[in-house]
Amino acid sequence: MKDHSDKALMELVVNRNTEAFKILYHRYHIQIFNFIRRLAGRRELAQDLLQETFTRVWFAAHTFDLKRGNFKGWIYKIALNTTRNEMSKKQYEYHYEDWSQICGTNLEPYLASTDQPDSKLFQSELRAKIAEALGKLNPLFREIILLKHYQQLKFREIAEITNTPEGTLKARFHHGIARLKELLEPLEL
Amino acid sequence: MDHHNKNNILALFYQETTGQNQQKFMQHIQQCESCQEYLDTLKKTESLLNEWTDEIPLTDSFDAIMQNISPIAIRPKQLPPDFSFRPIIHIAFALAFIVISIYLAQTKISLLPFWQSLKDWWLVQAFGGFGIVIILFFCIGTFITLALTPILFLKTRQFNNAISY
Ligand SMILES: [Zn+2]
After folding, report:
1. B82 lies in some domain
2. Is the dihedral of CA B38, B44, B46, B52 positive or negative?
3. Which range marks the domain in which residue A151 is found?
4. Do A4 and A80 have their domain in common?
5. Per-residue model confidence as pLDDT tens digits over A5-14
6. How far is A38 from chain B (nearest CA, A)?
7. Which of A143, A164, A166 is nearest to A155 (CA)?
8. What is the domain count for chain A?
9. Which domain holds residue B100?
10. Which of B10, B84, B106, B160 to pair with A187, CA 20 to 30 A apart?
11. CB-hemisphere CA count at 13 Å for A186?
12. ipTM
């Protein structure tokens, strides 16, 4: 079943097949986790929202358009709406309380390629600064930059996920980039 | 630089253009400083953002998700609930409570000075004092329910919005 397409797996999920559901989870959980993580700013919260997203996938499976079969767009829509709901409910201040966690993973390969003793600190700070800058963006600008840059979706796909015209999305993207440029200027952008 | 041009640069940068447009625009960029500058900003921003690499989730949430969905979705058949006298006792108790309160209310009302004159009214004669108080109770009940309807409606809507994706 592992080499089934998303669409084929969703057909099984609609018929309450948990094995297919598990495969879809493992196929998408890391990218969805990282999307929510960068959007919401907190690791623990991202973990909860990841769980919530997949729970909704299960319960809303019957609403998935099997004819079109665009699972990726569909799950991003669910993840985005779940995160938006949560953020608006609690009036979050977007901030990173856990710098060490931002910087904790995937550092080793980078460190191996450099011989500067303080590079770990530099790298940590750099990541934290990027996270902080993203956090300072208007949430709508942040969404589009994350979907475009990290999730590498096409503007056409993002338009469908966010229910927003492409032109509006591109305008938001330009604003977001301009603001990021300002915020990241000290990092020699 | 207007948005139209910036959009072209985006399309070029993310490779979302068609061949002919791309060639034309590439030629333009060669001579246009502001377009080059924007393209440069995009490149630099991208390489900076790349520094924040993907992370692995803290734990595998799949078991937790299965727990979330199992009580309703996985269980093949809903078992019929065991028969219990408890709800019947509760209902009998509530009914007795309502009847006693109405009876007490009626005795109090019939002590009031206007009751004598009200007694000749045809409605009181038709239903009796107890009947009138029952009608009064139900009217008040209906009124309260109607007054609460908008609030309950909004609450339900909120709840529905919260569970839809
Ligand atoms: Zn130009």
Report:
1. no
2. negative
3. 101-189
4. yes
5. 999 999 999 9
6. 9
7. A166
8. 2
9. 93-160
10. B10
11. 7
12. 0.80
Residue A135 has which token pair? 């956090």
Centre of ligand 1 from the C-alpha of residue B29, in Å: 6
| B39 CA distance to ligand 1 middle (Å) | 10
Residue A12 belongs to a domain with what CATH number? 1.10.1740.10
> Number of residue pairs across A and B with CB atoms under 8 Å?
109
- pLDDT for A106: 42
| Co-location of A73 and A27 in the same domain | yes
Residue among B48, B50, B52 with most chain A CBs within 10 A, to mutate: B52
pLDDT tens figures, B69-96: 886 555 444 556 778 888 899 999 999 9
Residue A22 near residue A14, CB atoms below 8 Å? no
A18–B165: do the CB atoms touch at under 8 Å?
Answer: no
Closest partner residue to A184 (CB to CB) among B7, B48, B73 is B48
Residue B4 predicted with pLDDT over 70: no
Give residue-wise pLDDT tens across range B26-35. Answer: 888 888 999 9
Residue-level pLDDT at A97: 42
The domain that holds A143 is classified in CATH as: 1.10.10.10
Whole-prediction pTM: 0.67
- The answer to whether the CB atoms of B61 and A54 lie below 8 A apart is yes
DSSP for residue A106: S
pLDDT digits (tens, 9 = 90+) for B106-143: 888 888 888 777 778 787 778 887 888 888 888 988 99
Q: Is A119 found in the same domain as A33?
A: no
Residue A126 host element (H or E): helix A119-136
Residue B88 lies in a domain: no
Q: Which of A60, A173, A189 sits opposite B48 (nearest CB)?
A: A189
**Residue with token string 């078991």:** B63
Number of domains in chain B: 2
Which of A94, A114, A129 is the last residue before a domain boundary?
A94
